[in-house]
Amino acid sequence: MKLSLATSALYPFTSRFLELDGLRYHYLDEGHGAPVLMVHGNPTWSFYYRDLISALRGDRRVVVPDHIGCGMSDKPQEYPYQLRQHIDNLERLVLSLDLRDITLVVHDWGGAIGFGMAVRHPERIRRMIIFNTAAFRSSFMPWLLSVARVPVLGDILIRGCNAFAGLATRLAIHHHDRMTPAVKAGYLAPYDSWANRIATLRFVQDIPTHPRHPSYTTLAEVEARLPLLADRPAMLIWGMRDWVFTPAFLAQWLSIYPHADVRRMHDAGHYVVEDAHERIVPWMRHFMTKDRIAENAR
Question: How many domains does the chain have?
Fold first, then answer.
């Protein structure tokens, strides 16, 4: 995958790869210090977190993978693109790098995948920063996602027209001036052909809305174990203009982690980091520093 010069300047990081059963799993590993593990969703990739990475790598170790099928990772056409597999892959990265004392940062599908790993290894998790996402079951399905799940039609729209990733650059952001040509090109770069959009479609198809769905049991297991992390500090940063992960999802998170530090962003959409990274970085720094000071005082 090649980035334009303008887009490359926005993503000045060193690519690393973990081999997973013959496939290359791309990740970034920037900086030194306590690890911050950032897990992206669909149809984004590690590019989504670029401003957070640049801001934090001076005194933190920031690890950001691309799920198989996404970003700079391999995009096999025959692959179990299901929640359990993505959790397994992230778990293998965490264990391979022996990450401990982790600040877990999640967005979109990264919530189910990141927390899926975290509840398997709660002893490795120090705190959580949660952007618009879910790691629990929901019957809510926006009509645009429902259309994208229709057999054949979904293939045409997502793999043929790149409608999902393309529309997201308009519908997932509130401050449209931030979606410059270079930024838009960065989001779309990995998904430039029918073959390379395989995971974009499979993620949409993998949303488990009923018990017969193959990922329903996996998500239910993650949901049931979320209380294992209830004693960890949590911060919820929510784009209130998100039409996918609506404020109802925020309320659900607060029912699980009622003591979370909550920041409601009324001028941000689903791509909340894109809309407001300048405000988010100081909040994250304060949250992580305050938590560590409180621990040392005990």
Answer: 1
Residue 231 catalytic? no
CATH number at residue 105: 3.40.50.1820
Taking the C-alpha atoms of residue 42 and residue 90, their distance in angstroms, rounded to an integer, is 15
* Model confidence pLDDT, tens digit, residues 124-169: 999 999 999 999 999 888 878 888 899 999 999 999 999 999 999 9
Is there a catalytic annotation at residue 242?
A: yes
With CA atoms as reference, report the closest residue to 226 among 254, 188, 268.
Answer: 254
For 195-230, give one letter per residue: b (16+ CB within 10 A) or e: ebbbbbbbbbbbbbbeeebebbebbeebbebbebbe
Cβ-contact 246, 140 below 8 angstroms: yes
| Active-site option among 26, 40, 107, 108 | 108
108 is catalytic: yes
CB 48 within 8 A of CB 40: yes
Residue 87 lies in a domain: yes
Cβ pair 3, 186 in contact under 8 A = yes
Query: In this structure, what are the phi and psi dihedrals at residue 125, rounded to the nearest 5 degrees?
Result: -100, 125
CA distance 282 to 6: 26
pLDDT tens, position by position, 252-272: 999 999 999 999 999 999 999
Range of the domain at 192: 13-297
Global pTM value: 0.96
